[in-house]
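Researcher: I need the complex structure. Ligand is 6-O-phosphono-alpha-D-glucopyranose. Inputs:
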Amino acid sequence: MASASSATPDTLPAWQTLKHHAETLQHVHLKTLFGTEPSRWESFTRQVAGLTLDLSKQRWDDDTLEHLFTLASEAGVPSAIEALLSGKRVNVSENRPALHTALRLPDDATLEVEGEDIVAAVHESLAQMERLVSRLHAGQWRGATGKPIRHVVNLGVGGSDLGPLMVTHALADFRPKDIHPVEVHFASTMDGSQLADYLSRLNPETTIFVLSSKSFTTIDTLSNANTAREWLLSRLTQHGATPISAELVVRQHFIGVSASPEKMTEWGIADDHQLTFWEWVGGRYSLWGTIGLPIALVVGMANFREFLAGAHAMDRHFAEAEMAENLPVLLALAGIWNVNFLDIRAHSILPYDGRLEYFAAYLEQLEMESNGKSVTRQGQPINYSTCPVLWGQLGPNAQHAFYQLLHQGTQPVVCDFIAPLKRYDEVEDPDTRRHLKTQHRLALANCFAQSRVLMLGDDALEDDGPRPEHKRYRGNQPSTTVLLDQLTPATLGSLIALYEHKVFVQAVIWDINPFDQWGVELGKQIATDTQKIIDHEGDLSRMDASSKGLIEAFWASEQE
Ligand SMILES: O=P(O)(O)OC[C@H]1O[C@H](O)[C@H](O)[C@@H](O)[C@@H]1O
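Model: Output:
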């Protein structure tokens, strides 16, 4: 990876060239770039795997791209891609590969990792998942009192929640017909509020829980699972005339998904209700395997396989395309240019399709947990920026909320607009279809208008009369637009893989490890210490004045 040599990226020749080049472009407005280069759409747009990536509204020109390609070469991007996909130990701090791409290899592929072909094992885990899905879809999975299961609540957090939540919401239209209806829900927060809501509404006889945790040690998930188990036991063991054993209740109402079968067994998950995966799948990259169980439950296994195939198409493109044609590389380079050379450190994700409601939340983890790092892979502190602050919301709603800042605030922000070209063809009633298609056109018009206004500012108005200062838009905010031919399991798979690989390429250039998250660990450790003190089992006097005050306020509230 970067570093065939041990040079940090800011000492590479292309980095220096880009710094000088940025000075020449720093004050060139985007509208000037469009004025002087009318063929920017042709120059900066690429299409692959059902996606169109429009990078023409980035504040760059052909020379910028050439210098960025040189930077990527000097940083070792091509060999790093090879190392990632072939299963080298790219996660250096945990000394293991990062093989989420292996989860979407077709079954006739082979991938030998450290002497072992892992493709057969991957497909066996999918087959095992399929068996559970089929039982639930056939109405053959019965709860402890004998009733078929109607509700599945996924208990997980971070990577064991955000990916499945995002995808099940995005692909809800793809539910198979003619199956026993099973509704999927998600509870992640450790405070129990989401879970409490489900427990107040769902029938324990027809509800099962998926305990989804790579490590099977995450307190958030385990505390939700313990509450769910108590709820089931108190409702079901005394149900009817004959008592039902606690063992049967836990057996019939819990599935476990984890990289630690021992811990699942210890918790009480029955062997045949355990789905496993591997340490070499990072949590935030785990939706492609058994952690994707809720996705398969919503869309069916055939669509789940289409989803994997879409991601695999992007993997092949990533592996094979030249840098100048390579969508993930181009998207990554746009980010590097913005963060490190134009000093734009805020990035907004704006889908114009309600089905992508959770896409920004998913990307927040993917990008910021992966690349929110400040030491090199060799452990040296770095003195250049890495991951920008990334946040987002459905674009149409954000227009009525934070777009004001994008248009007239003082922060430079880069935006990703995401929208499907085709929508609503499947709506049966012709009148409703016509109205919904009009709404789709409205959404696209807004999506295209916003990126244009961000680029041109008030020059987007044809009537160029004088405007008072408070109505001036300066424009010049760069953006990317990603169009999906339509939102399908396959194109969503490609879209996610596009961002995964973008994150990887940026990490290579920044010379950081995108596959660990040590910063999260410290918080967990300190929370455990703090909980002891809150529970009167630790030494309050060790605490700083603020933390002490907060704990005392809580204790005082308990006395009221
Ligand atoms: O799947 P789990 O082991 O429960 O982990 C859930 C989440 O916990 C964390 O704190 C990590 O930062 C995430 O990367 C992970 O996805």
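Model: Summary of the prediction. Residues 233 and 246 are 6 Å apart (CA to CA).
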